[in-house]
Amino acid sequence: MPEADRDRRRRRSPAPAAARPDRARRPAPSKARTRAGAGTGGAFGMSGTRRAALLAMVLCALALSIAVPLRTYLAQRDELRQVTAQQGQLAAEVAKLEQRQAELNDPAQVEAEARKRLHYVRPGETPYIVQLPGDAERTPEEERPAKAPAANTSWYQQLWQSVAKK
């Protein structure tokens, strides 16, 4: 029986397209016809104005999504530049202080500093103070500190005040 069904199907199969006059091939639509229809529907079925509005919205969304990270990047780049400059200054200061420390490790340099700044002398030496011609006109009040510390303050308060002034 299956063979009989196959035969029936073959007999009922449609005729080739060339044999059917009602469904004859139609010519491809001309370009003039498709362009005329594009103004009404366009790509994705939208008019030119709608496409422009959609494009503007997409561009605005992209601009807004890029603006915050870009602003953060620029701020961090400026901060990095400032920190790098500050680090360079601190490195120069550290080098200067290390050089000063190396100088002060020498006992001869420490002795010279004590003699110069603190007016120290070795036992048995006689200290001399040389007065220059312009020193004779100065009065002792000019050489004294501008303001004497208050007598009723404690020593640590006087010390703190002297440090705070500088």
UniProtKB/TrEMBL annotation:
Transmembrane in keyword set: yes
Residues spanning the membrane: 52-74
Any one Pfam family match given in the protein's UniProt record, by short name: DivIC
Record organism: Umezawaea endophytica
Key word Kinase present: no
Coiled coil segments of this chain: none
Domain of life: Bacteria
Region Disordered, annotated ranges: 1-44, 130-153
Organismal lineage: Bacteria, Bacillati, Actinomycetota, Actinomycetes, Pseudonocardiales
Biased composition regions of type Basic and acidic residues, renumbered to the chain: 135-146
Protein name: Septum formation initiator family protein
Alphabetically ordered keywords of this record: Membrane, Transmembrane, Transmembrane helix
InterPro entries: FtsL/DivIC
